[in-house]
Design goal:
The protein is of the alpha+beta class. The chain has one domain. 26% of the residues lie in helices and 36% in strands. Strand 3 and strand 4 form a beta hairpin. The longest helix has 14 residues. The N and C termini lie close together (6 Å).
């Protein structure tokens, strides 16, 4: 089973952190694979790792602010 959770819209850094924390808590029994963010979020500092989870900028998420977290399949 592949688990992916995504949020989009006009997002502040606090919105992004809240989404990531809530999603990680919701799926705490699954290992996170990685986080993909739009260029705008990447440039605001979400550019390396979040809680030891790698972050990558995904150009397909342009033009709106978007963040996605994916978990390893069971």
């Amino acid at each position: 089973m592949k688990i992916k959770s995504e949020l989009g819209g006009e997002l502040s850094n606090a919105d992004v952190e809240e989404f990531l924390n809530d999603t990680l808590e919701r799926y705490k029994d699954h290992k996170p694979k990685g986080i993909r963010v739009s260029n705008s979020i990447f440039q605001r500092g979400f550019d390396d790792k979040y809680r030891d989870i790698p972050i990558a900028m995904d150009p397909s998420k342009y033009p709106q602010d978007q963040v996605e977290i994916e978990f390893f399949e069971d």
